[in-house]
Amino acid sequence: MIDSDGKQVGIMSTRDAIRLAESRGLDLVEVAATAQPPVCRITDFDKFRYAQKKKAHDSKRGSASGGIKEVKMGALTDKHDVDFKVKHIRRFVGDGQRVKLTVSFRGRQMAHPELGRALIDGVVEQVRDIAQSEGAARMEGRTMSVLLTPR
């Protein structure tokens, strides 16, 4: 058993540990149930639970999931805007993320899918040094998309 000060008290019966905890106005918290004998700590249970919650939150926060970032453009996006989006793609790929590049078509633009394909091919060419495309661009309804992965 571990005392509230962090000192190891030793092995004692459960009743004695509960009495000791109650005499100090604290709780007896089981820390390692699978250990033989089980390890308990005399501490404030609310503080213990708060610390566990914070530790779990921080561990989730530190691990970046290998998710997919999406960069969207229109079929007639201007060159400057495309260059701006390419900077974003470079940053995402540099961070190890996969990027889904999506070009959407509106109205009569659907009659000219070659515009979107040319736009996608141009962007893929600009990031070829750090990213590679997984397959060719494919049309899905009113959008054309390709997946870029880090090299």
Key attributes of the depicted protein:
alpha+beta, Translation Initiation Factor IF3, 151 residues, 2 domains, four-stranded mixed β-sheet, Ubiquitin-like (UB roll), two-stranded antiparallel sheet, 4 helices, 28% strand, 6 strands
In short:
By secondary structure, the protein is of the alpha+beta class. Helix content is 38%, strand content 28%.
Molecular structure report:
It is a single chain. By secondary structure, this protein is of the alpha+beta class. Helices cover 38% and strands 28% of the residues. It has helices at 14-23, 45-62, 79-94, 113-126; strands at 27-32, 39-43, 68-74, 98-104, 131-140, 143-150. It is rod-shaped and about 80 Å long.
Topology (SSEs and partners):
Layout: H1 14-23, E1 27-32, E2 39-43, H2 45-62, E3 68-74, H3 79-94, E4 98-104, H4 113-126, E5 131-140, E6 143-150
Parallel strand pairs: 3-4
Antiparallel strand pairs: 1-2, 4-6, 5-6
